[in-house]
């Protein structure tokens, strides 16, 4: 018979560890084979803890039982107080931030000057150091923006139309235009000088601006048929425009190229008469030439045809 191999009886042990407040720590007995039972009730080889104290695990390999004890000391987070010595409201103001703590510390940029100043909106953090622990505290220093008006100094709009501009209400709390209105939308059909003032708790911003009207476009409509049959419907034929004609000429021709209607007056319309009003034109296609100027000085020449339907 062969003797059983000599087995080494595992020894109980105790391990001291540190845990930073607000942190977590993994306790392990993975180097000890067997079945596990922790004083927390866990039966795995590891245990996650979030506070200091005494923790132990018993390991039974079927022959022997050993216990590992963890004495965990929790390192408390140092006291921290952030105070601002001056009231600050508006962007561009200076805020002095005073840090009170017994621990070592530094701002995001590495500075640890006791009095630190900020002048614009900023999200930053401060790091505390105590023994081997470190904590990060986030801070937002928020300033109200001073009122701003983002407008051009001159605006151009089309004749016969209305100039319309809307100011972003987030830019201020009150607003007044040169015409006395206080709406966030300014509407005018007049050329000239205007101003707007926008105000919040950080001050008032004023902007002077000009509005200039200009010719943009004309829509010209020329029918392609009409019915001069004395029923008071669609009796006449003439071009129609959304703006005044300048230097107007309108000629209508028959199939032989003879001029049967001619006018320089935009209000004159052809009613289908020919030969000085002695006859009505026959039902057929007639060609025309329209020449006119626009208010901006441009000239147009249009060729087309119209059909008479009785």
SS-based structural class? mainly beta
- The general outline is elongated
Q: Give the ordered list of helices and strands.
A: EEEEEEEEEEEEEEEEEEEEEEEEEEE
Secondary structure tally: strands:
27
- Order of strands across the main sheet: 20-27-26-22-23
What name does CATH use for the topology of the largest domain?
A: Immunoglobulin-like
Largest sheet: 5 strands, mixed
Beta fraction: over 45%
Question: How big is the Rg?
Answer: 46 Å
Number of domains: 4
How many individual helices? 0
Put the structure in a nutshell:
With 310 residues, this protein is mostly beta strands. Helix content is 0%, strand content 50%.
Would you write up a description of this structure?
The protein has strands at residues 13-20, 25-28, 35-38, 46-49, 53-60, 65-75, 81-84, 95-100, 104-107, 115-118, 122-130, 133-141, 154-158, 163-166, 174-177, 185-188, 192-200, 203-214, 220-221, 225-226, 240-241, 246-253, 259-263, 273-274, 279-280, 285-293, 299-308. The chain is mainly β and 310 residues long. The protein has four domains: 13-75, Immunoglobulin-like, CATH 2.60.40; 81-141, no CATH class; 154-214, Immunoglobulins (Immunoglobulin-like), CATH 2.60.40.10; 220-308, Immunoglobulin-like (Sandwich). Strands 20-27-26-22-23 form a five-stranded mixed sheet, with no helix packed on it. A four-stranded mixed sheet has the order 1-6-5-3, with no helix packed on it. A hairpin with a 4-residue loop joins strand 24 (273-274) and strand 25. It starts with 12 loop residues before the first strand and ends with a strand.
